[in-house]
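User: Let's play a game. I give you a shape written as tokens, and you guess the letters that built it. Ready? Here's round one.
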């Protein structure tokens, strides 16, 4: 079967300083572990063609399909607040871009296929565990309705990678609206290459925010668009209890998609200071810090764009500040609107934010599960008798019962048409629970058993539906008393 992928590689046509060309690497025994058939179809690709051995070799980076122009992208970034002038794709290769059936242009990137000029000391490889993790969690995020990079395929390379121990190697074929990061702008700005910053801004505008081209200051409009998307994105994270874990400026996409699933994880018990990543010792990227960190990152983007905003730096800063101030407002609005949906409030009231914050405070004190509590409220909105079973999730049910009285009173003041259904679509039953993700990874890595992966992936594909047969996946872990820890390394 000959496979035709209609690549159109606009990023590869940018100047040479934007990327480095990549040669195929040798994978010993490429084997397809999973193809996302539905995504392949959205992209306009034939799933059957991508299930061939030839495609498995491409996905492993061992030879490239016709029309691909494999490149590693240059970027810089602030890592935990410290600026690193050159990072770049050290373990990722952009195969090229395709325009899908929906008219959307997307990157197809291989993560873990071998070294690039940006690898420095690293091996450019990925271990199977983190690949399984990114596949599961990024697809779960998409199903939850959160903008995200997607997983197209997962292949085993047949090679071993050396981490703390020897692990099976794998590659994730990832699909993204683009891989332009805040750090991509920083790469050129740090070199004082204003022309490249301008070129990148023009490219980002044309690709993601074409209306900005007509603004009186396109760079400022670009900043505003990115800030809006980022505010909406982080609000969605907060509303489902997602902790990204490594919000460095190189891990923040201009497109507004969630990108780089390393140490990310979901809250079980609601605790705003939750940090999962083993390397985040200061808690910089704790759950509650995420909205502020996104604003910090946007400020770094604004600094890169200053020369394009106004030749007079002081004036450029003033103009950028106005736009950045809009971020906090957009975030608050998106978060409050989302909280209203989660609480089943069909109309806006002055006390709504307070009501949500009161509940969160009681959840934190009562060590209640974030996801189960909100899902339970949906049931309680339909049948107030169900409040008692939600209350059982709290160490001390009394404060919650008191809160629920006020909440039900508030609901009673509104028409309830469609409320229960609306709440179901705002409060997922199923999220990728940490213990379940770990169990899936262990089965895949230790036994080559992907049945648990398939089951969990299919449960997470329908997160807002009741799935009585899969209730075991909705239940939080019994507390082990030990904090869950995640690791960056792929
Ligand atoms: P991350 O922590 O995923 O944001 O990655 C930070 C930087 O380290 C990026 O430039 C990556 O490309 C690079 N990197 C991470 N893992 C590897 C690896 N196994 N080999 C080479 N470079 C890597
Ligand atoms: Mg990164």
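Assistant: Ready! My guess for every position:
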């Amino acid at each position: 079967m000959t496979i035709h992928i209609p690549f159109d590689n606009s990023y590869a046509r940018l100047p040479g300083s934007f990327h480095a060309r990549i040669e195929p690497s040798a994978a010993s025994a490429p084997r397809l572990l999973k193809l996302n058939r539905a995504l392949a179809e959205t992209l306009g690709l034939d799933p059957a063609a991508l299930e061939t051995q030839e495609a498995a070799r491409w996905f492993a980076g061992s030879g490239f399909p016709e029309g691909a122009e494999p490149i590693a992208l240059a970027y810089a970034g602030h890592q935990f607040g410290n600026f690193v002038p050159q990072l770049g794709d050290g373990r990722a290769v952009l195969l090229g871009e395709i325009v899908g059936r929906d008219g959307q242009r997307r990157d197809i990137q291989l993560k873990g296929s071998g070294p690039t000029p940006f690898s420095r000391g690293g091996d450019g490889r990925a271990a199977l565990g983190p690949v399984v993790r990114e596949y599961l969690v990024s697809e779960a995020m998409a199903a939850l309705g959160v903008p995200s990079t997607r997983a197209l395929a997962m292949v085993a390379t047949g090679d071993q990678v050396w981490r703390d121990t020897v692990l099976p190697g794998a590659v994730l074929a990832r699909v993204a609206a683009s891989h332009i990061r805040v750090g991509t702008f920083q790469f050129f700005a740090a070199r004082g290459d204003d022309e490249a910053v301008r070129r990148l801004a023009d490219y980002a505008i044309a690709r993601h925010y074409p209306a900005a081209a007509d603004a009186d200051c396109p760079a400022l409009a670009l900043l505003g668009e990115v800030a809006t998307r980022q505010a909406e994105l982080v609000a969605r994270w907060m509303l489902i209890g997602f902790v990204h874990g490594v919000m460095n400026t190189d891990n923040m996409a201009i497109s507004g998609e969630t990108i780089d699933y390393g140490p990310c994880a979901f809250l079980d018990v609601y605790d705003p200071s939750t940090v999962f990543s083993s390397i985040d010792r200061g808690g910089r990227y704790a759950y509650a810090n995420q909205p502020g960190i996104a604003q910090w990152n946007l400020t770094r983007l604004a600094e890169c764009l200053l020369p394009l905003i106004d030749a007079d730096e002081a004036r450029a800063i003033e103009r950028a500040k106005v736009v950045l101030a809009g971020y906090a407002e957009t975030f608050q609005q998106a978060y409050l609107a989302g909280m209203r949906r989660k609480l089943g409030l069909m109309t806006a009231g002055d006390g709504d934010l307070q009501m949500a914050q009161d509940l969160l405070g009681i959840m934190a004190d009562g060590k209640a599960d974030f996801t189960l509590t909100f899902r339970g409220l949906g049931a309680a909105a339909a049948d107030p008798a169900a409040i008692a079973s939600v209350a059982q999730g709290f160490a001390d049910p009394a404060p919650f019962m008191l809160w629920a009285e006020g909440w039900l009173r508030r609901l009673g003041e509104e028409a309830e048409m469609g409320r229960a259904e609306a709440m179901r679509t705002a409060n997922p039953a199923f999220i990728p629970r940490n213990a379940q993700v770990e169990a899936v990874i262990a089965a895949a890595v230790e036994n080559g058993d992907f049945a648990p992966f398939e089951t969990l992936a299919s449960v997470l594909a329908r997160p807002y539906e009741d799935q009585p047969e899969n209730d075991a996946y909705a239940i939080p872990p019994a507390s082990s008393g030990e904090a869950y820890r995640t690791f960056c390394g792929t």
